[in-house]
Design a protein that fits this description.
By secondary structure, the protein is an alpha+beta fold. Helices cover 23% and strands 40% of the residues. The longest helix is centred in the first third of the chain and has 15 residues.
Length: 204
Amino acid sequence: MSISKNSIGMFCRSFICKVDDKQLLFMLCILLIYSCNHTEQDASALAVNYFDITTLVKTDVKNNTLNNCREEKSVYLNANKETRLLDSIDWKKELEPLMDCDINKPAWKGRFFADTVKTTVSGITSVQYRALSEKVNVKSMIIEMRQNEIQRIYITKKINSFIFSSVQIIEYFPGKGFSIRGEQKAILMRSFDLNVDVKYICTK
């Protein structure tokens, strides 16, 4: 996979991390981009075999863009926290980490086990997907619904390579925002935690 300098730059600017060690921040941006494991594919070749998270994300991108939505973003790097209200947002890029969780990649067909669980007390029905292959970096996806309306999507991602390892817990609330909890470990670097909370602020 090739990573352009422009992509790295835009990703770094999108996160408002405040740290003293600039070299650590630069390495952090590279690791997170590489961990996305994004593969460009011809849309005509994609087939929907499992839950389609991309439709929800594209809807958020469209609605947030048309309504000129702002966002409240909080970034936690280890013990450091910074929160800002952002007005100008490229929503397609901002929600790209969610698009990267698409489990309908052609190479992943047949590599998930699906199950449906109903909870009568809370009225929540959850559809759960579990990866059957170590080659799949999305290890699980849980879609929670109440009266056929999606309340939350809970995703676990794990990536291991000879350079680094990464564990991410992603919670997506369609139409509202998302959060990412990540632990990164890399060769010759201390392990670190990076957490991001994003809340949509729309007037409509």
